[in-house]
């Protein structure tokens, strides 16, 4: 899956808010990890890996997927985090990494997931998983994996040999 960027959708000015207001819409602070990229399962479950520092040891975070703005063609969503109140914050918070599995709101068209500001990406395109698209993918003929591997690896070897020949000729 490739990461996609759509500057008009996520620039805080396009949302008529400041960067701080946009950041606040994600709730309590967290980092969405770029590896592995967030995905959308065919069952409509969004899978994303995040890291965060809870204020208190044992604090519980609630996670929700919510739409960002309205657009007929593009559906942009964000994950928001809310942490349970903490009476005595930890002096040395520890970082937690968690794989989230959250139900995605129903939406048609292209779906994008927004990252909080100043992270690896601003936006990633989620795969379309309508029942019709899944049936089409299932109906596609499968390729002979070993034949494809041979062709790709053979092409790489030819490319490497060409680069070596060019470098050799250039050095002499």
Automatic annotation (TrEMBL):
Domain of life of the source: Eukaryota
The protein's name in its UniProt record: Uncharacterized protein
Source organism of the structure: Tetraparma gracilis
